[in-house]
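Sequence design from tokenized structure. All designs in this work follow the same two-part layout: the structure record, then the generated sequence. An example of the structure record is given first.
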């Protein structure tokens, strides 16, 4: 994969109950190393995959299925379109959360598993009580908390209007960010036919086709990147493009969205 030029600025030594407005209103992205390292979920994940699954199952009421995006092994984890953009390279399945977790465990040591990815699932609806034990203080911000679970995955660069605090609680993730000014160099796909609601960059970050997407080379000159371990978080300001990769056989991220304007 081409290497973006700059690392995301890092801040160390923060606690989840002591995030200042200066951080949460930053116009630039920030990596907050170890900010949620003391969460019980993070401790479980560092213990073992089974401990992480057991911890999540404690809060699963089983009352409704999650939506799992499932792609064949040849997709190599990339959640994307088919060749002519007429459809997607994955299918959506409704499955109980416990079944999805057990399926990820089953494929843990498979060298070429199907890609399984549950995105943007409302935390309080599907795992009530999780936030009571895994706390982050965002002040008066009315944040929507979501959980993302899967094996190795690549989510194309996209942007969101809200600010975003994304906390890695199991596995590792690589995040690559582009400022809003790089819109013209990211080759955004269809606006009304998207993999998950937001328009995405058509460029494969692992293998950019510079003949088809020549201006992407300029976008890379403005990119910022970080690899996040369990307990780390990244603050992504509103409208920054972000490409997210799950790097392990089991990855869990909890994020918080809120709007300042």
């Amino acid at each position: 994969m081409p290497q973006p030029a700059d690392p995301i600025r890092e801040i160390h030594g923060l606690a989840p109950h002591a995030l200042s407005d200066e951080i949460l209103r930053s116009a630039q992205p920030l990596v907050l190393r170890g900010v949620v390292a003391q969460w019980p979920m993070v401790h479980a994940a560092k213990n073992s995959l089974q401990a992480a699954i057991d911890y999540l199952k404690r809060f699963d009421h089983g009352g409704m299925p999650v939506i799992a995006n499932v792609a064949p092994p040849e997709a190599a984890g990339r959640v994307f379109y088919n060749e002519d953009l007429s459809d997607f390279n994955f299918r959506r399945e409704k499955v109980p959360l416990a079944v999805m977790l057990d399926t990820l465990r089953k494929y843990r040591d498979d060298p070429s598993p199907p890609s399984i990815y549950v995105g943007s699932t409302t935390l309080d609806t599907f795992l009530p009580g999780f936030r009571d034990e895994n706390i982050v203080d965002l002040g008066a911000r009315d944040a929507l908390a979501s959980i993302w679970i899967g094996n190795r995955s690549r989510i194309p660069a996209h942007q969101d209007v809200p600010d975003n605090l994304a906390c890695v609680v199991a596995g590792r993730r690589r995040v690559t960010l582009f400022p809003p000014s790089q819109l013209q160099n990211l080759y955004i796909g269809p606006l009304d036919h998207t993999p998950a609601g937001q328009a995405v960059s058509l460029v494969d970050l692992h293998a950019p086709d510079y003949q088809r997407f020549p201006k992407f080379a300029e976008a890379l000159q403005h990119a910022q990147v970080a690899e996040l371990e369990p307990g780390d978080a990244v603050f992504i300001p509103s409208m920054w493009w972000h490409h997210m990769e799950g790097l392990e056989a089991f990855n869990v991220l909890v994020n918080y969205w809120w709007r300042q304007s």
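Helices lie at 21-24, 40-47, 49-59, 97-106, 123-126, 130-133, 216-220. We note this feature because it recurs in several other targets discussed in the main text.
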